[in-house]
Structures are given as structure tokens and as C-alpha cells.
Amino acid sequence: MTPAKVVLVGADGCKAGWIAVRSEPGSTRRDPDTAPSVDVFPSFAALLAAIPDDAIVAVDMPIGLPEFSQKGGRGPEALVRPLLGARQSSVFSIPSRAALYADTSGFTTIEAWYAAHIRASEAAKATSNPPRGVSIQAFGIFSKIREIDTLLIARPELRGRIFESHPEVAFCRLNGDQAMLLPKKIKGSVNPAGMAERKELLCRHGYDMDFFDRPPPRGAAADDFLDAAAMMLIAGRIASGEAKPFPDPPRADGFGIPVAIWA
Questions:
Q1: What are phi and psi of 162, to 5 degrees?
Q2: Which residues contact 188 (CB under 8 A, 6 or more apart)?
Q3: Structural domain boundaries enclosing 16
Q4: Could you give phi then psi for residue 144, rounded to 5 degrees?
Q5: Which of 63, 188, 238, 246 could form a disulfide with 164 if both were Cys (CB 3.0 to 4.6 A apart)?
Q6: Is 147 helix (H, G, I), strand (E, B) or coil?
Q7: pLDDT tens digits for 66-120?
Q8: Structural domain tally of the chain?
Q9: Cβ proximity of 263 and 244 under 8 Å
Q10: Tens of pLDDT, residues 52-79
Q11: What would be one Pfam family of this protein (predicted)?
């Protein structure tokens, strides 16, 4: 891949906030002096404040929310699932904006968290056809989806810099449109063989294995680190014009925010 002329950032949500893998213009990824950096930020706004205004960011988080949810998702989900074979369960549908914003309070107890999940599910059922609630997995990232959504509503200029991607779609596209053979996790625990398969693929695209041998930053898991590294490669593909959006061209939500998974 030709070195990009802008800063490239791959981001993923993590326990401490957001993990970001960053590459400077002209870096080769195998040169220790220009190797990517990895950091954790407490908020997406903090991540943006730490990078140049023209940086390209690919993030593993849904961008663009439906007012009414149809079976199969917003559109991008249904397009990418067939690419992934046994890995397609990693792509879950996003409920309506009303469900995402049904309860935005901070949760100080587990009981409050579950009560908020119920409220979000009720809002989702009222704004979907057929009526569908919210999975615990999806609800767990609602606050992070809202972080990006509120930024893109308030700052429309960011819409040409921040792009939604998805790790398994990214790995598939980087692997010549062949889905990964092994799962990254099994029953919620990291699968070493699946991680190794993905590390080897990322190294074929310019990373050095030493980069992945380090422990992930505090507050991020090993799979978050790997996903952010994949997202950075997609940011490079977007910057060079190699990436493809699903759908092509992207759709737009009610605020004009583009809706597409890029890879």
C-alpha cells in the first residue's frame, strides 16, 4: 500500500473509552522509527482533539441511525453478512435512534443498567417492523454510538473524515474477500488461534509482529487492539480510494449522516 499523505487512525471502543492505532504520513509500519502508535482515550472527542483536522478515522462503531428499524438492519448489515460466512453473527442490527436515546443517564447500579435496557427495548419494539427488542450486546455499546452520533450532528464537517467499518468485514476484504476461518472469540473468551490468524493477515499488510506482541494499553483488551489495527488499514484504503462502501453509494440518515460500512 502506498504510504498515505495524511494521519490515519483506526479506532475501537474499549473498557476505558476508545483505543486508537495511529499512523503518520509516509510511515511504513515495519520501520521502528515510524511504527504506528497506540493509545487509549476517555472519549471520542478526546481522540479527535489529539489528531490533525484532516486525519482519516475508521472506527468499529455504527454511524448513522434509522428512525425506524427494518428486519436485517439499516442496510449495510444485510449487504456485508453474506461475505462473512460463519463470521456473520458478528454483525448485529442497529435499532432506531429513539431506542438509542431512550435512556442516556449514567448507571450507578446493575439494576439501573438492566432497567435502562428494558426501556431501550420497549422503544426499539415501538419503532421497528417486525417489533424487535435490543440485545444486551448492542445495548452495551449504545453510549459509544451516541458519542459519535452527537459529534456528527453538531459538527457536520467531521462526516467526511470519520467512517464506519467493521473488523470482520475489514479482515475479509484484506484477505482477498475471504472470511476468516477461525473465530476471534469463543464463548466470550479470546481464541488464540483466531487471533494468530488475524495477526498474520495484518502483518501481510505491513505491520510488524513485534507491534502485536506488546500488551494492549491499560483499559483495552487484546482483541480491541487488533480490531483498531485493522481499522487503521481501512482508513488507509479510504484515503487512497481503495475502500468500498456497503452500500455504494452510501445512504444517509435523517440528519444527513452517511450510512455505510467501509472496507
A1: -110, 120
A2: none
A3: 1-91+144-263
A4: -75, -35
A5: 63
A6: helix
A7: 999 988 788 999 999 999 988 998 888 889 999 999 998 888 899 999 999 999 9
A8: 1
A9: yes
A10: 999 999 999 999 999 999 887 889 999 9
A11: DUF429
